[in-house]
């Protein structure tokens, strides 16, 4: 039966009608009449409560003077101004890293030739060996004096050095400036003829005092750098000691950079020899994961030391590659993949008498070496089957075909190409002419690297010859511990062409890495996930034995939020300038936190629902408010491979990943840094953990910032109208200084909070640059809001009338400048033990603020009510939140300035609802029995997204109506009471079982216990999974323009009977996220990366220099000492 819709909604279905009630039409009219009366009464009560407690009229008066301060902004000018500030920031960091690179080059050129052996008396501070970092004052003074003495050695050594052409530090005056601050601060001259003995016993290098520095969020020592030695490198190795000795003086430029730029963070010099100078000095974590940190596999290092490259790995899968050999071959592949990045392309083929791609859908192609594709390759390493014998000619033929095709089409890295051969040996003769015909005669476009797993001397000679004649490198892998060091030599080989540019440095470009996390490598997510599942398993066991007091402390840290430090790193290659140096000697780098980029964004100017983003040259997100990087407090495995089109979702009806032309063209313009005026898009986005749907028109503007592209987004209806903050008059700033300083420490008073983030950053940046903070437009606005709303702390006139009746917990006010005020009226123990103000102090960034502005723009009469999702109406501390946006308006100009709100007890509203819905008066004015507590009527109050706000069944509170009454929700959709939209989450994570290993490999034996307790524990074992990127879809609902409870976003729904009737043909669409499965040719379970690689292969732009051939290297071809030969 058709739904009847009037002011409110009443459903009468013949399949549910009681036999005692046959007056269907009359009954419907009565109930519709009563629902209208009930909704009017509830609406009046709620409106009275919300208006009086939030004092919205007082707020409107406070901001009314601003209606004459409104101005219209030009988005193109705004984005250019922001881009200018970001470019200044980036240029400053780039200049600092250039000075590190130049000074390292200068010091290395003039380094001593004196050998340092393992038994020498040269010692250094090792980040892994520091046993004491307390701030002992005597030790601090001792280290400071030692530093001064060492600096004298450097000063004296550099006084009369010969100039190094094309190096800024050849200028003696420029070089001496590094020592000026030392002399000014310490007042000590250096006596070069009488230098003190610099020897210190090794135990002195175990205690390095450090002091906490908020800029680094660590205990550090700013006097010197510290050495970090790669795990597989011996710290007393000759090359390491000699490198550490000549690079000591880099501390001068580190400290000078730090002095010139107080926003600078970590600075590095990293050597291929396995050591890194890290400034400032810091004690490395004892956590095993961080101990294994190797900078030579980090993107900032690998992108600076090599040019972009296409790599094909040929993996021998002959029957003899079993056991240890297979394990070693897999380790080699993993280590190679660790050195690749977003600007590289790769594929892995296994070969015997045929070739097969490791991942089926990657056949006959190269895929971008982003984390998603690399992860899929790694996961499939244990899967391939060993069989037959290996025919190298077959494998090489496939590799040459693919690389030749990509050279012709120029759809990959457009620079270097390499083939990596991993084999036990050469099983039978191969076509030796293939290298002559397909490589040498074409000018050696491809380098060949050979990795031998075996001890055959004849095979070693042949594989070495292949590498040497094809500008590559050969390595014999005999031990797991040697794999990384030997594999990394390929980077040094590929750095030669960059180093041959050392005389002019004409093509040198700064390398800006993609988004990464400090000290985290690509397998951090898997490692943390294993810890997370260990916690889950432990809790299951402890629950079983009823001994939850036993806590395994090793896991405790993984139950807490980890403070991930997101950043990009700017780096430069460091040239080897001596005649005999053919390879780069290292990489200079400086970390640039993403928070520094955010600090340049005038969020107040962009306003609510406006934002800024940055994309890389590959179209991936560097910064975006909808970029969700964590899952269950763990870093997502592919958090830095999120594409622009995956966060900006068009409001259309397309199937998943069939992105519309408008968004794809916008992405192309952003990546190529093409100028455009503005682009308008209709988009859909979600709030409240993807449970609420919002639709909007947005305007996009962009500007280039180095290799990245900055974009800003302004909402269509109110995004261009702003308050002219520079024109706002505020009281003398001295009167507000004490209040502001209290805010900066955390709270201005009991009832106000200063949000960490926007204003906090603005204040401190202005302080850093010695600008009076009160001149900043944002702070001017903030001070105005403080003064204009100071009445908020006064008593509410009608508080007694409402506070007790509705148990009003808090009232609050958030303004467009970032001010957040609240008043606690009734103390309540909040369910998650975190106060409302601590959870909601980000003002215009809060979902309730954004939602109120969007919904109230067209209807300023409504308050927006919501309850926590899937809560319980039985709890006394369940709160209903009511919000409303406040605007200033003049003529056609209108802009939001604040949102007011309150929280009151759900049980109190239920009492109001219960009292109201017990009343029943029919059309003749007589009492009747058609109430919500009667047997034949079920009542609900739903919000505009179809979540239950009130019900006679407390367990339904906060749940989606379709989960409770699917049939009814389907009818509501059919009758256009609600409309639904399919929403996609392209950043989802699914917990999946790992791929099954090759069945031909011997599997480890599992011994099962036979004791009762053991068997019981075995049954409690959880299924181990790993976090896998996936796509989700969900259907989200919005209320159409129909009558609601007056002045609210609520719908009163009355259902005849218990609502249990249903139809089997109902195809109900739920907000519950479901994984999207794509149809690909691949037979593996990992269809998403395959689909992306084949269907979403969009524009990329290479910006770094390409060094792929230099005639100077021709003289090295065939010289075995440059291609891995280490015996005579």
From TrEMBL:
Residues passing through the membrane, by range: none
Membrane topology: Single-pass type I membrane protein
Signal peptide: 1-18
InterPro entries (alphabetical): Ca_channel_alpha-2/delta (IPR051173), VDCC_a2/dsu (IPR013680), VWA_N (IPR013608), VWF_A (IPR002035), vWFA_dom_sf (IPR036465)
UniProt keyword Metal-binding, yes or no: yes
Cited SMART domains: VWA
Pfam families, per database record: VGCC_alpha2, VWA, VWA_N
Ranges of residues in domain VWFA: 310-491
Alphabetized GO MF terms: metal ion binding; voltage-gated calcium channel activity
Subcellular location: Membrane
GO CC terms, sorted: voltage-gated calcium channel complex
Record bears the keyword DNA damage: no
UniProt keyword terms in alphabetical order: Calcium, Calcium channel, Calcium transport, Disulfide bond, Glycoprotein, Ion channel, Ion transport, Membrane, Metal-binding, Signal, Transmembrane, Transmembrane helix, Transport, Voltage-gated channel
Protein name: VWFA domain-containing protein
Organism listed in the record: Exocentrus adspersus
Lineage: Eukaryota, Metazoa, Ecdysozoa, Arthropoda, Hexapoda
């Amino acid at each position: 039966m058709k739904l009847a819709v009037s002011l409110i909604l009443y459903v009468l279905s013949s399949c549910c009608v009681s036999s005692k009630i046959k007056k269907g039409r009359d009954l419907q009219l009565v109930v519709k009449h009563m629902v209208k009366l009930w909704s009017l009464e509830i609406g009046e009560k709620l409106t009275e409560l919300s208006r009086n407690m939030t004092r919205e009229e007082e707020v409107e008066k406070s901001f009314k003077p601003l209606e004459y301060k409104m101005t219209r902004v030009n988005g193109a000018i705004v984005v250019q101004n922001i881009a200018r500030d970001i470019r200044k920031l980036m240029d400053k960091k780039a200049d600092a890293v250039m000075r590190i690179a130049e000074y390292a080059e200068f010091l290395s050129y003039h380094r001593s030739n004196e050998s340092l052996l393992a038994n020498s008396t040269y010692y250094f501070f090792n980040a892994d060996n520091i046993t004491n970092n307390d701030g002992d004052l005597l030790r601090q003074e001792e280290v400071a004096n030692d530093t001064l003495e060492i600096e004298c050695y450097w000063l004296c050594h550099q006084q009369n050095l010969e100039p190094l052409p094309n190096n800024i530090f050849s200028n003696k005056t420029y070089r001496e400036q590094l020592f000026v601050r030392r002399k000014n601060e310490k007042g000590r001259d250096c006596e070069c003829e009488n230098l003190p003995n610099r020897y210190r016993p090794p135990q002195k290098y175990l205690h390095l005092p450090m002091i906490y520095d908020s800029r680094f969020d660590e205990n550090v020592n700013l006097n010197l750098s510290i050495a970090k030695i790669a795990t597989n490198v011996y710290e007393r190795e000759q090359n390491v000691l000699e490198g550490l000795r000549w690079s000591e003086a880099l501390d001068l430029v580190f400290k000078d950079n730090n002095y010139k730029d107080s926003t600078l963070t970590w600075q590095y010099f990293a050597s291929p020899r396995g050591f890194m100078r890290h400034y400032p000095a810091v004690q490395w974590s004892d956590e095993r994961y961080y101990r294994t940190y190797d900078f030579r596999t980090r993107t900032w290092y690998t992108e600076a030391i090599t040019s972009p490259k296409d790599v094909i790995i040929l993996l021998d899968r002959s029957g003899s590659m079993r056991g240890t050999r297979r394990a070693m071959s897999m380790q080699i592949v993993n280590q190679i993949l660790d050195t690749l990045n977003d600007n590289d392309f790769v594929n892995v083929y296994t070969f015997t008498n045929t070739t097969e791609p490791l991942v089926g859908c990657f056949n006959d192609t190269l895929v971008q070496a982003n984390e998603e594709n690399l992860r899929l390759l790694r996961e499939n390493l244990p899967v391939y089957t060993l069989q037959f014998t290996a025919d190298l000619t077959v494998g090489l033929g496939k590799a040459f075909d693919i690389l030749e095709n990509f050279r012709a089409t120029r759809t990959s890295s457009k620079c270097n190409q390499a083939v990596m051969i991993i084999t036990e040996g050469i099983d039978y003769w191969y076509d030796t002419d293939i290298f002559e015909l397909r490589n040498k005669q074409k000018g050696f476009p491809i380098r060949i690297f050979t990795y031998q797993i075996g001890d055959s001397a004849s095979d070693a000679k042949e594989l070495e010859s292949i590498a040497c004649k094809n500008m590559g490198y050969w390595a014999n892998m005999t031990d797991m511990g040697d794999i990384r060091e030997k594999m990394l030599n390929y980077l040094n080989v590929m750095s030669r062409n960059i180093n041959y540019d050392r005389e002019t440095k004409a093509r040198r470009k700064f390398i800006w890495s993609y988004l990464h996390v400090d000290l985290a490598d690509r397998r951090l997510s898997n490692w943390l996930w294993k810890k997370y599942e260990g916690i889950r398993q432990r809790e299951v066991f402890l629950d079983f034995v009823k001994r939850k007091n036993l806590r395994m402390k090793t896991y405790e840290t993984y139950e807490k939020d980890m403070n991930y430090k997101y950043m990009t790193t700017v780096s430069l290659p460091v040239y080897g300038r001596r005649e005999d140096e053919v390879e780069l000697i290292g990489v200079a780098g400086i970390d640039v936190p993403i928070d520094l980029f955010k600090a340049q964004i005038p969020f107040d100017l962009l306003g609510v629902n406006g934002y800024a983003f940055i994309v890389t040259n590959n179209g991936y997100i560097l910064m975006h408010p909808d970029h969700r990087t964590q899952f269950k407090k763990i870093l997502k495995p592919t958090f830095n491979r999120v594409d622009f089109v995956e966060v900006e979702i068009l409001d259309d009806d397309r199937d998943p990943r069939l992105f519309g032309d408008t968004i794809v063209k916008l992405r192309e313009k952003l990546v190529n840094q093409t100028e455009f005026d503005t682009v308008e898009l209709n988009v859909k986005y979600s709030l409240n953990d993807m449970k609420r749907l919002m639709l909007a028109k947005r305007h996009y503007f962009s500007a280039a910032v180095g290799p990245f592209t900055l974009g800003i987004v302004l909402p269509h209806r109110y995004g261009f109208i702003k308050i002219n903050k520079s024109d706002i008059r505020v009281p003398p700033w001295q009167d507000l200084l004490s209040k502001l300083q209290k805010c900066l420490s955390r709270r201005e008073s009991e009832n106000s909070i200063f949000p960490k983030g926007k204003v906090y950053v603005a204040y401190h940046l202005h302080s850093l640059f010695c600008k009076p903070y009160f001149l900043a437009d944002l702070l001017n606005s903030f001070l105005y809001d403080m003064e204009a709303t100071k009445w908020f702390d006064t008593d509410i006139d009608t508080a007694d009338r409402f506070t007790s009746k509705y148990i009003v917990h808090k009232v609050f006010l958030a303004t467009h400048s970032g001010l957040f005020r609240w008043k606690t009226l009734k103390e309540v123990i909040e369910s998650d033990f975190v106060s409302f103000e601590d959870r909601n102090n980000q003002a215009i960034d809060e979902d309730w603020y954004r939602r109120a502005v969007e919904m109230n723009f067209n209807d300023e009469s409504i308050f927006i009510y919501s309850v926590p999702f899937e809560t319980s109406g039985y709890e006394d501390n369940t709160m209903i939140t009511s919000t409303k946006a406040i605007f200033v308006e003049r003529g056609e100009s209108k802009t939001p300035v604040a949102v007011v709100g309150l929280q009151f007890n759900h049980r109190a509203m239920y009492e109001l609802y219960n009292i109201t819905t017990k009343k029943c008066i029919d059309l003749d004015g007589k009492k009747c029995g058609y109430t919500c507590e009667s047997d034949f009527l079920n009542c609900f109050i739903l919000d505009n997204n179809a979540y239950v706000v009130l019900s006679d069944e407390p367990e339904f509170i906060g749940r989606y109506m379709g989960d409770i009454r699917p049939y009814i929700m389907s009818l509501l959709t059919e009758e256009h009471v609600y409309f639904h939209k399919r929403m996609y989450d392209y950043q989802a994570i699914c917990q999946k079982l790992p791929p099954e290993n090759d069945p031909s490999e011997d599997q480890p034996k599992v011994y099962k216990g036979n004791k009762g307790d053991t068997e019981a524990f075995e049954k409690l074992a959880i299924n181990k999974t790993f976090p896998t990127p996936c796509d989700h879809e969900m259907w989200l609902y919005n209320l159409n323009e129909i009558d609601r409870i007056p002045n609210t976003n609520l719908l009163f729904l009355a259902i005849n009977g218990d609502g249990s009737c249903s139809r089997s043909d109902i195809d109900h669409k739920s907000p519950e996220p479901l994984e999207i499965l794509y149809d690909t040719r691949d037979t593996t379970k990992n269809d998403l990366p395959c689909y992306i690689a084949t269907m979403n292969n969009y524009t990329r732009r290479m910006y770094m220099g390409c060094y792929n051939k230099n005639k100077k290297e021709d003289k090295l071809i065939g010289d075995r000492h440059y291609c891995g030969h280490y015996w005579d």
